[in-house]
Structures are given as C-alpha cells and as structure tokens.
Amino acid sequence: MRLLLFLACLLLVSSVSAQHAWEDFVEEYTSGAIETEEGNLQQHLLDLKELYEHPMNINEAGVDDLMQLPFLSEAQIEQIHAYIYLHGQMQTIAELRLVPLLDEVTRRRLSFFVYAEPQKPEEKVGLFGALRHDFSTRLDVPLYYRKAYVVESGGYSGDPLYHRVRYALGNSRHFQAGVRMEKDAGERFYDSYGGYAMLHDVGILSRIVVGDYRVGFGEGLVMGSSTWSSKGSPPLKRQGGIRPMTSMDEANFLRGAAATLAPGKHFRLTAFGSYRKRDATLTKEGEVQTLLADGYHRTPTEWERRRNVGSAVVGGNIEWQSDGFHLGATGYWQHFSRSLNPGTQLYRAIYPRGNVFGAVGVNYGYTRYRLSLAGETAYSTAGGGWATINRASYAIGKRYVLSAVQRFYAYQYYSFYGSALSENSSVQNESGVLVHLQAEPLSGLLLTAYADFFYHPWPRYRMTRSSTGQEFVLQGEYAVARGHRLMARYQLKRKENGDAMEQHHRAKLQWTAEPSDYLCCQTAASLHCVSGNNGVVLTQGIRGSVPKWGLSLNGQLGWFRTDNYSSRIYVYHPSLYSSVSSASYYGHGVLAVLAGRWKEQGGRWMVEARYGLLRYFDRDEQGSGLQTIFSPWRNDLSVQMRIRL
Prior knowledge:
The chain is mainly beta.
C-alpha cells in the first residue's frame, strides 16, 4: 500500500516543469566513484554543493575562486580571465562558448556554479557591505526503532532524532562567516559545533580564515585536505590553498587561524596554526591506538573516546608563479598530547608512532595553453619515507585531452593531511601509473577511458604479502536527440584481497529523457559481479518543478538483488539542500525516495521534506548489534527550513 501511494505521488510530477538539477552534475562528474567508494567523495560533494547553492559571478571570480572547481584546468582558468580582459565582462553564460579550450562538458559543469552579471563600478560593495543572512535547520525522524533504544541498559543515551543548525553571514566578495552545530541520532545533546570568519581579497591579504578551515597545496602529498582526486576526471591542477570549513564533518579539518598574503604579482605566502581535540581509542597504557573520524558519542564507551587527545599543528607554504611556471614548498609540524601506538598487526606496522610528526614537500609545474606538467615530491618524519606524484596533460584541440599520472608513495611515508590520487585511503604504501583519455570525437558524444596499474609493497589489511591490481574503465555519453542522453559505463578492477585476486566487473546503463519542458525522467540499471556473485539494481527517477508556485519534486524508485555483501551496489539518492545522500544495497528489496521543496518567490524562505523507504524481501531484521531494526521495513523522514535575508 505504501509503495502504491508513493507511485501516485511520483505521477504528479509529470504535470510539472523539468529543470537541470544538482543530480545531473553529480552523476556525470563522479563517473561511478560512488559505486566504488573512491576517496573522500562524500566530503568533496558537500563542498561542491555549497558552491552550487552559492554560485559566483564569473565576472568577479578570481583565480582562487575558480580553483575551487576541480574540473577546471589552470589553462582554462587563464583563458576565462583573458577573454574577460580582452572583450569585457560577460553578459550571459552563453559567452563561454567563445572561450578557447572550454569543451561542451566543461561548460555544462561550469554552468552549475557560476552566473554572468555585469557589475557597474558604483555597484561594488565594501568590506562589510551588502551582508546577507543564511539560516537553515534540519531534523531527521526515523519512523522505526533500533535495538539501542529498546534495551534496558547498554543502549544509546539520547533520542533517535538527528538535528543540525547552520548560520552564515557574508557578501559575495570580501567577507564570510558561519557557525554550525549538530546532534547525531542517539546522542544526548549537540556535541559537534564550530564556526569560521573569512576575509578575502583585501589589499595584499588574499585570504584569512579564523576558526575551522581546511588546507591544500601542490598535489596534496603534504597538505591535501581541501579537495578530492578522481580517476574518472583528467588530472588538471594543483590544490587551492585555504578554505573555510562549512560542512558537518567532525574530523577532517583544522581549528585556529590561517592566512595567505600576496605581496606581489608572482608570490604567495601562507601560514597556518591549529589546536583541537580528537577522538581516539586508547590502549591500557593510555596511548592512542586509533584516531576516530565517525563523531559518534552515543554510548558510555563512545563518550570515553570523545576528545581525549590534543593535536597541535603549525605550518606554511610559499609559492611563486610566472609565465606559466609555478614552484612552491609546503611543510607542517604536528604534536599529539598522547603517544601514538597503533598495535602489532602486520598491516599496522607502517602506521606512524610517537608524539611528533612532520612533512615537507616541493611542488612544481609548467602550463602553457594546451600543455600542463606538474608534480610534487615530499618527505615525512613519521617513518623517514619519500613520496612523489607527477602528471602530464595535453589538450588536442577542444575534443581530446590525454593525461598520465605517475605516483610513488613509500610505505615509510605518512602525512596526516595528505590526499592525492591513490587506490588506498591514505597516501602511503603505493606506486602506480594512470593513463586517462577524454574525447569528443563527434558532436554530442563524450568518451572517457582510463587504465590504472598499482602496486602495494607492504601487506595491506587481510594480506600477508605485497599485492598488485589494475583498473580499466570505459564510459560513453551520447546525446541521442534533443533532451535525450544515453550513458554506458563498464569497469573492470582486479585487486588482491585475502591473498587472492578478486575481479570486479561493474556496468551501468542510464537513459535521461526530457521529452518536453514538463517532464524529466532517468532510468538506470547497474550490475556488479565479483567472484561468481552477482548484484543488480534498477532505478527510475522523475523530477520537475513549478516555478510559478516555487515547488519542485524529485522522486526515485528502485529494485535490487545481490547474492551477498561483496556484490553490493551503491546508489545516489535525491537529497536536501547542503546534503549528499548515497547508500549501498545488498540482498533483495525495493527502495523509494521522494524529496520536495517549496521556495518563496523572493528566495527568502525555503521548506524541504524528504521521505525514504526501504523494504527487504529476504530478511525480517536489518543491521546488527545496537543498530538492529526488528522489521524488514525502514521509513525515514527529514524536514529542513532555510531563511535568507
């Protein structure tokens, strides 16, 4: 009955107007990374969604602003600024077609994050002029109970509701500030909070952030926590410096102050300092065994791990660039209040030990129109190891981009803030070569292909020896007709696990249709085969909007069946403002999601709701331990309100 009601709601969408949505960008940009759990994707998408919700005027956007968009190369950014300098401010985004090196895909992606609005001199605002307030609050209500809430003792100390509050203040150019707080389901009160204040482009002060922030320089070997590296996209540019922490992540950020100075046209100087408490599991001797990142404090045991180790960090960066060349150096020193002792397991033997750590690296590169060469070489004190990554990219006209990346991360190397292209979750114990091709041989046809070969000299988790692997991907997207796109992707990954080679075959076929201005449909089928086990997911999405009433709806239905957990498949779902939603599915069942939004005509008020349904056919319970749900059904409701003044 619930499924029939949900289908009826989706049918209502057929009478509303379709619009290009955030989901279009995510599906195209990630290119299957959600299905493969590649890198810190969730955090990266949250950062991008923040930029999507606050687009920038391309006529005002500086290099640092555009550097936040990972699909733009340094050469493309240079061409955009050259066009505006030579021809004046852009009147519409359609002028991007006249910018050299901007292909159709890049223009489409860019349109999600920028707009064109000529600015008259008298309209320019001061440092604290034209301030806008942005307040949002979200409440998640699970329409079921977990075991943790029904046991008499040993369960969660708080209620099952999730709640968060965010407030931001700023103008479009020089000043931004924000605060946030969050209570996870099962926690007693709001134990996660933070904030920031940022000045941008004020004299020689390029950027200063006080509060919570993230840092990324060079290729990310030393400090790379401000971006995400994808194998599916061409390796385009170095990371973009300091940026405020705007998401709800409770682990991957610094807390203190950071500043970047631009004393001349060619030099930039950055210094940063941080002190914050981290969650950790401790040994009987009081040493740190594992640094935690989940942020949960629901049980007495989890509460004991809350902020029980202090971390102090100081560091800096210096960079010079001129005539297409760039050269920089980055370093940091870190001290923990407790000594790190990760244990005696073989795969943990290469983890850092002690109290004091540091890393230093030199990044370098040259960009001239179609050619881009760059790299970084770093050394860490944790184990006395070296790491290097080097990339080359050449644009053969607008239609072809050929790239290659070489990487070597010694197992002795370790940086707590490193994030670069890798198969592992950390920049350590890996060497490899990636070759990437992006081609548009015909108008409307985009092909992406890459091959990655990697090797891990030290035994990884569940391994007793060194291991190797390969990954091959071929993806094509074709505009069959106006408003109709077909996407097909195949991935083969061979990777050793448990001292045995596993072969993962993943395939996806997706049809996106906008037959009129009143309907947008997306039909997809995904397949995952591994070690004789198979999994399949079929999804149907429908979305649209009624601009006159300020309404929009986004719905999704799905059916999945997999042989076991190893053949699970990942699905991206419609989500609320400033949120990203994806989940893995295994077993046999159906899923449904419906998200609705009402936005006041002036854009000052916005109210959203999201309902999710999951029904298993092969089990009577879900989850394990305290997370057990004593039902094959799962129903979740989320509501959110946003006010902009």
